[in-house]
Amino acid sequence: MMDIGLTALLLLLLVVVLGFWRKVNVGLLAIAGAAVLGYASGQFSGKQIIGGFSASLFMTLLGVTLFFGIIQENGCIEFVMRRMVGVFGKQIWMAPVLVFAMGFIVAAIGPGCVPAMAFAAAMAVPLAHETGYHPVMLLVIGNLGTYSGRFSPITPEGILIRSLLEEQGLSISITSLILNTLIGNLVLFLIVFAAYKGFRVKASDGIKIECEKEKMRADQVIALISVAVMILLVIFVNMDVGLASFLVSAVLILLRIGDEKKAVGSVPWNTLLLVCGVGVLMNLVISTGGIDMLANSMSSIMTSGTAAGIMGVVSAVMSWFSSAIGVVFPTLIPTVGTIVNNVGGGVQTAEMVSVIALFASVAGLSPASTGGAIIMGACGADEEFNRRYPGDKLFAQLLAWAFITIGVLAVMAFAGVFGWFG
After folding, report:
1. Residues 158-171: pLDDT tens digits?
2. Which of 91, 123, 165, 181 is nearest to 364 (CA)?
3. 422 neighbors 311 (Cβ within 8 angstroms)
4. Cβ 86 vs Cβ 209: under 8 Å
5. Where are the transmembrane segments (predicted)?
C-alpha cells in the first residue's frame, strides 16, 4: 500500500497540473483534494481538514489588499510616482533606473508584485516612446524591480513567507531577503540593459513625460498619510499588519476617501482562495510526512555548495507551471528547515528562502506567466510597438529571457552569492 505521505505529495502535484491544464483556481482544487484525502484515508476529521485553512493569514491578506485597493483607487501613489518622474527624469539614462525603482517602491509599499508590474508597464511604454529605449527592455526591467520590492514586511508575499517560516519555528531578516533578491535582480538589470544596447541610446531633449498640472487633492494627501500611519502602527505599536490595514481602511471609508463597494471589489479574492486553499491541502501534506519526504529527497542530492542552486532551479521550474505565491512558496518554504538541518555545512535559512523567492519570481518573465503576459499586453495595446514587435516574436523573446535569467541566477546561486546577506 502506498505511503500516505507520498500519496499526499502526488495529490498536490495532480491538483497543480489540473489547475494549470483546466485553468481552474488551484486553491479550490486543493480544498477538494484535501477533503478526498482526509476522508478516504480515514485519518482526518472534517474539523482537522478545515483547521488547515489559516484564518490569520486570510485576515492579514484581506486587510492589506483591501487597504491598498482604496489607496490605488485614490490615485495618490500614482500622483507621487509621476511627480518623481518629472523631477528625476530629465536625463535619458535615468529612464531604466526610474522604471526599476518605481517597480520596487510600488510593490514594497503594500500591493505586492502584480499591481506593481501593471504600474511599471503603464510607465514603461510612454517612456520607451519618449526616450528611444526598447520597450521590452524597460518592461522587463520594471518587472525585475517588483521582484525584490514584493518581499517587504507588508506585502502579501512578505506576510506569507513570514507565516510559513514561523510554522517551522524559523525566522529571517526581511532586509536579508530583499538584499539577496536585489543583488540578483540588479545583475539581471545590467544584462538586459546591455542585451538591448541601452548604452547606445541618446537623446538631446531628455524625457518629456507629461506630469499632472494640478496639485494633489486633499483626499490624496490624507490617503498618503494613511499609508504612513499604517506602517508606523506596524513598526512602533507592533500591531498586526492585517489589523492595522483594517483599522486605517475603516477610517478612510468613514471619511468617504474610500468607496466601500469599490474597495471590496478590488480585493483579489482568487488570490486569497489560491493561497489559503493550497494551505488546507499543504496542512495534510505536512501532517502525513509528505513535506519531510520531499525535503529529505531533495537534501539527499544536495551538498552545502549545491543546495541553493538546486533549490532555485526547482523553484523556477515549478513557477513556470504554477503560481509563485499560491504554489511554489507554500510547497518549498516548508522544506527549508529540514534541508538546512540535513545538508549542514553552512547552508543558511535566509539563503534558501532567498533563492526560492527570487527564482520563482524571475521565472514569471515567461509569457505563460503573469509577468510575461503583462509585458505582452502592454506592447500589444500600443499600435506602434504591436506593429514593430509582433506577438509571436515577443512570445519567443520572453521565453528566451525566462531561461536566460534563470541560468544566470543559477550560476550566482552555485557561487554562493545569495548567502552574502544571511
Report:
1. 999 999 999 999 99
2. 181
3. no
4. yes
5. 49-71, 92-125, 172-196, 222-255, 267-286, 307-333, 353-377, 398-421
